[in-house]
From TrEMBL:
InterPro entries: AAA+_ATPase, G_ENGA, GTP-bd, GTPase_Der, KH_dom-like, KH_dom-like_a/b, P-loop_NTPase, Small_GTP-bd
Similarity comment: family membership: Belongs to the TRAFAC class TrmE-Era-EngA-EngB-Septin-like GTPase superfamily. EngA (Der) GTPase family.
Domain EngA-type G: 4-169, 178-353
Domain of life from the UniProt record: Bacteria
Organism: Anaerotruncus massiliensis (ex Liu et al. 2021)
Binding residues annotated for GTP 2, in chain numbering: 184-191, 231-235, 296-299
Cited HAMAP family: GTPase_Der
Function description: GTPase that plays an essential role in the late steps of ribosome biogenesis.
Keywords: GTP-binding, Nucleotide-binding, Repeat, Ribosome biogenesis
GO biological process: ribosome biogenesis
MF terms (GO), sorted A to Z: GTP binding; ribosome binding
The protein's name: GTPase Der
Residues bound to GTP 1: 10-17, 57-61, 120-123
Quaternary structure note: Associates with the 50S ribosomal subunit.
């Protein structure tokens, strides 16, 4: 399920970072910092009144001339308009309304996106000072007095943002639709694939019962099944790829992963694997999604009889951190193996939702522990009593044992491999949970 996104924009020095950090300090935890995987602190989960939203800082503005500041502010605001569900415009009570504030306020207002105006540096509690009322002139409704340094008003600010979010309306696709996120670097061919799969079958999202948001989703129904392709390309002003746009496109990719059942991790065959691919792929892996690596532009590769085999070998090495992932070599341009891609999506989706009966799991466990004895330490042997599958998406297995400390990672890995070789689980991460029981 997609979490609503709140973007913070405003002039330099009004206190955006301070506000962001205040919110982060109080009630935001950094999205998991797993080594080598999602180290970018690009967005933060914020829990408030029992609901989670994502908060994004739109990045710094270089202090050049005023003109440049304005153009950067406009770009920042445009990115927020393109991506966020609610925008917080931060202004500064000490400097009053400036021409740049006015310019950006007009732009935000025209966009029709919900905007909440935060009048920052209102440090004194109680009635706001007279200067506060000047901000009504921005035409963005009731301003909210905030002190990002002290934290006053931040709850009211979040409440105001929440009033624009329909938490119930999110992602109401029928479960029979497989939600597919196509993720990958710019130019690998994501849009081309979506255009290809949509083709004549493209439907208007609002025609699908119960859907209310994400107009960029592409709904496809064909002989293979029913699908929602989640578009992550989103920001198409490719000529201006800079840090901020990069930030948002990575962010959108992450959010698409969150909403998906299956992630198609797309590479460009003519470029190959890069570090950045391991990041998005790693995120899909961490989130427990069904995963496929699609090597696109296969039409553009000079091939002989061994090319695919060699390519596959190299990829197996690149994606060794998710050794379960299947590879498919496609061309969005010619349509090569797009039918196979659908079949693979269905297969991986089913694997991700697989449920193994407890009896069969424990048969596997007896066999596995007889074949390779559980480890011992200082004369004590690990004893595993029982195993059960706690959940699906991804398949999660709970092992009950006598002593967690003895349940080394290597033995967990061994059991995971046994699960995989017995039940398949191709294209899906598997989670192992260890519990102690006397
Ligand atoms: P940004 O450029 O918009 O991200 O602004 P910063 O967060 O870097 O803040 C700019 C300056 O304003 C810093 O010196 C902050 O300490 C100060 N500042 C931010 N919020 C407040 C506030 O609520 N009250 C006061 N008095 N100062 C603030
Ligand atoms: P995105 O940024 O990932 O959405 O990539 P696009 O779909 O915009 O494609 C980027 C470029 O790659 C475009 O010029 C496409 O025409 C080209 N392209 C996409 N798929 C293929 C393919 O399968 N084969 C070839 N040769 N070119 C492709």
């Amino acid at each position: 399920m997609s979490k609503p996104l709140i973007a913070i924009v405003g002039r330099p020095n009004v206190g955006k970072s301070t506000l962001f950090n205040k919110l982060a300090g109080a009630r935001i935890s950094i999205v998991q910092d797993t080594p080598g995987v999602t180290r970018d602190r690009i967005y933060y989960e914020c829990e408030w009144r029992g609901k989670t939203v994502m908060l994004v800082d739109t990045g710094g503005i270089e202090p050049y001339s005023d003109d440049q500041i304005l153009s950067q502010m406009r770009r920042q605001a445009q990115l927020a308009i393109d991506s966020a569900d609610v925008i917080i415009l931060v202004v500064d009570i000490q400097s009053g309304v400036t021409a740049n504030d006015q310019d950006v306020a007009v732009m935000l207002q025209k966009s029709g996106k919900p905007v909440v105006l935060a009048v920052n540096k209102a440090d004194r509690l109680g009635e706001p000072p007279p200067e506060f009322y000047e901000f009504y002139n921005l035409g963005l409704g009731d301003p909210i007095a905030v002190s990002s340094v002290h934290g006053h008003g931040t709850g009211d600010l979040l409440d105001a943002c929440y009033s624009h979010i329909d938490f119930e309306a999110q992602d109401s696709y029928d479960p029979e639709y497989v939600r597919v996120a196509v993720i990958g670097k710019p130019n690998v061919g994501k849009s081309s694939l979506i255009n290809r799969v949509a083709g004549e079958e493209r439907m208007i999202v609002s025609d699908v019962a119960g859907t209310t948001r994400d107009a960029t989703d592409t709904v496809v129904e064909n002989e293979f099944g029913k699908y929602v392709f989640i578009d992550t390309a989103g920001i198409r002003r490719k000529s201006k790829v800079d840090e901020e746009i990069e930030r948002y496109s990575v962010l959108r990719a992450y959010m698409a992963v969150d909403r998906s059942d299956v992630c198609v991790i797309m590479l460009d065959a003519t470029v190959g694997f890069t570090e950045q691919d391991s990041k998005v792929a790693g995120y899909a892996h961490e989130q427990g999604k069904g995963c496929i690596v699609a090597v696109n532009k296969w039409d553009a590769v000079d091939k002989d009889g061994r090319t695919m085999q060699e390519y596959r070998k190299k990829l197996e090495n690149d994606f060794s951190f998710m050794s379960y992932v299947p590879f498919i070599f496609i061309s969005a341009k010619t349509g090569q193996r797009i039918d196979k891609l659908y079949e693979l999506i269905n297969f991986v989706n089913a694997q991700n939702a697989m449920r193994v009966p407890t009896g069969r799991l424990n048969d596997m466990l007896s066999y596995a522990t007889a074949r390779v004895q559980p480890p011992t330490d200082k004369g004590k042997r690990l004893r595993i009593y029982f195993c059960t599958q706690a959940s699906t998406r991804p398949p999660t297995f709970v092992f009950f044992c006598n002593d967690k400390e003895l349940f080394h990672f290597s033995y967990q890995r061994y059991l995971e491999n046994q699960i995989r070789s017995t039940f398949g689980m191709e294209g899906t991460p598997v989670r192992i949970v260890v519990r102690e029981r006397d």
